[in-house]
Design goal:
heterodimer; A: 106 residues; six-stranded mixed beta sheet; 44% strand; B: 119 residues; mainly beta; seven-stranded mixed beta sheet; 51% strand
Chain lengths: 106, 119
């Protein structure tokens, strides 16, 4: 089955840059997107089509993809960015989420 | 403004069939490229995609749950219904419905409904 692998946790100091990776065999020819989810809230789309940012998402959120790995980068991380982050992709028949990364800002 | 809202039972007994309804506004499920998906999240765990229905009534299911799931749409009522048969306590989760944009990403999500499966 198709899988996306994320690190379980990432820590960053306020104001620094956080990077979260997402790897999968089929990412080479598929687009990735990213969501963040604060406790008790619904997921929010922060990056789609590898690099695009929906309206209303701060510019400090950016995405990239190289080969089979997609990366979410948060520049100038703020305490409000502390959340779980999920990557997602798809193949011809299924949608797949990564296992999630807990971002801690301390 | 796109909104989605999940409704259904919050407590289901094991072996029963769970029926959830997603009622949406701000878009039409008859518009080319549009879809509505269901995603669930067990307490403290990751998101898991369940099913997706497209504007043309094409349907996709999670391979691991395909035998237990059915997704349907009622375009005139702006609703999508997900049924899951033979539920088990491991199906306890918050169930979300979400709007699928042109590409395979979900740009609007409902608030979710916590469904508990317990005797």
């Amino acid at each position: 089955s198709y899988e996306l692998t994320q690190p379980p946790s990432v820590s960053v100091s306020p104001g620094q840059t956080a990077s979260i990776s997402c790897s999968g065999d089929k990412l080479g020819d598929k687009d990735a997107c990213w969501y963040h989810q604060r406790p008790g809230q619904s997921p929010v789309l922060v990056i789609y089509q590898n690099t695009k940012r929906p309206s209303g998402i701060p510019e400090r959120f950016s995405g990239s993809k190289s080969g089979k790995t997609a990366t979410l980068t948060i520049s100038g991380t703020q305490t409000m960015d502390e959340a779980d982050y999920y990557c997602q992709a798809w193949d011809s028949t299924t949608v797949v989420f990564g296992g999630g990364t807990k971002l801690t800002v301390l | 403004q796109i909104t989605l809202r999940e409704s259904g039972p919050t407590l289901v007994r094991p072996t029963q069939t769970l029926t959830l309804t997603c009622t949406f506004s701000g878009f039409s499920l008859s518009t080319s490229g549009v879809g509505v998906g269901w995603i669930r999240q067990p307490p403290g765990k990751a998101l898991e995609w369940l099913a997706l229905i497209f504007w043309d009534d094409d349907k996709r299911y999670s391979p691991s749950l395909k035998s237990r799931l059915t997704i349907t749409k009622d375009t005139s009522r702006n609703q999508v219904v997900l049924t899951m048969t033979n539920v088990d306590p491991v199906d306890t989760a918050t169930y979300y419905c979400a709007h699928k944009a042109g590409d395979y990403y979900f740009d609007y999500w409902g608030r979710g409904i916590l469904v508990t499966v317990s005797p």
